[in-house]
User: Which sequence fits this backbone?
């Protein structure tokens, strides 16, 4: 039977039509392409600066609206330089910022180990002196101990409250992710999204009763992919630009125990998912294997469709170098199959 409407209902719907029209247009309009810079060269520092300069028209509008910059580094190990953001990569970001941004710059991390040990080991502590005009500060997000709690899932698929670094949610901050191109022991590869997703959770510092919310994120194959997606979804409104340093990437048993690959690349984008897709392509990895990136794309956190990514600079085909993956890659890919650990569906 066809639906019937009263005259009053018809008038109400007619009145709503102008307000609904932009929403309908937004839903039906095709998504705009994302832009990614891809640079190859013999200087890590220059590669990073050039990659950001190549997308300056994308970065500058967001940068102008912020009071300070946060450079979120990746120190998965406080002693292995290959596993961590290189000081020259930070200098490259600062070189780009210097003529364009006059506010302070904070280098920040919530390392799995002791953040301050990594700052000392990798020469970050000299940045405040060397870049005095840019008002560079170093902050350990674990010691800062300010957080925003979001729900994630634990190994048993129970909802758990997880503390993420509040500074990464500051609307006054332009967040630049300084990631490293590496393979991973759970998530196939780690680039910008993974650096944010597993770098944002906090843990205790010496003198406190031990606790570690990183373990709430990183707790199983499927769970970790999903939790990084949930974290990215929460962080998305606050993400400024992704920078991936592939000058010397890591293959094999990453993210902490792999071997170097002289890819000599830098990638930059204001779309973190698009930046990671180009990184995955440059590493010769099947993009279908990247569960957390696929989830992020499917739910509006960024563009993962290579056909909708405009690459400025090098051609991906010209720089692609197939990385040796982690020795547990077959187990890692089990996230793609059925969940055999649980009993059959009931009801």
Assistant:
């Amino acid at each position: 039977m066809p639906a019937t409407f009263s005259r009053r209902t018809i008038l109400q719907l007619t009145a709503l039509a102008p307000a609904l029209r932009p929403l309908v247009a937004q839903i039906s309009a095709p998504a705009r392409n994302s832009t990614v810079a891809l640079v190859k060269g013999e200087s890590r520092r220059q590669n990073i600066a050039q990659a950001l300069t190549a997308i300056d028209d994308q970065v500058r509008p967001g940068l102008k609206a912020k009071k300070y910059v946060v450079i979120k580094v990746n120190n998965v190990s406080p002693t292995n330089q290959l596993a961590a953001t290189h000081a020259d990569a930070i200098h490259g970001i600062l070189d780009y910022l210097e003529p364009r941004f006059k506010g302070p710059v904070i280098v920040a991390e919530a390392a799995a180990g002791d953040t301050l040990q990594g700052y000392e080991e990798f020469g970050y502590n000299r940045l405040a002196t060397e870049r005095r005009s840019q008002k560079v500060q170093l902050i350990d997000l674990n010691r800062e101990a300010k957080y925003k709690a979001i729900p994630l899932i634990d190994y048993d698929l129970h909802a758990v409250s997880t503390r993420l670094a509040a500074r990464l949610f500051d609307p006054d901050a332009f967040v630049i992710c300084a990631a490293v191109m590496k393979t991973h022991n759970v998530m196939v590869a780690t680039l910008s999204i993974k650096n944010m997703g597993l770098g944002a959770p906090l843990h205790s510092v010496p003198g406190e009763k031990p606790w570690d919310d990183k373990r709430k994120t990183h707790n199983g194959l499927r769970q970790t992919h999903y939790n990084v997606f949930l974290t990215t979804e929460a962080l998305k409104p606050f993400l400024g630009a992704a920078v991936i340093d592939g000058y010397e990437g890591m293959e094999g048993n990453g993210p902490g125990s792999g071997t170097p690959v002289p890819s000599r690349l830098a990638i930059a984008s204001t779309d973190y998912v698009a930046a990671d897709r180009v990184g995955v392509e440059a590493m010769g990895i099947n993009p279908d294997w990247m569960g957390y990136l696929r989830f992020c794309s499917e739910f509006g956190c960024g563009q993962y469709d290579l056909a909708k990514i405009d690459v400025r600079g090098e051609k991906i085909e010209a720089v692609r170098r197939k990385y040796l993956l982690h020795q547990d890659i077959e187990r890692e890919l089990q996230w793609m199959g059925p969940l055999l650990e649980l009993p059959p569906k009931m009801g």
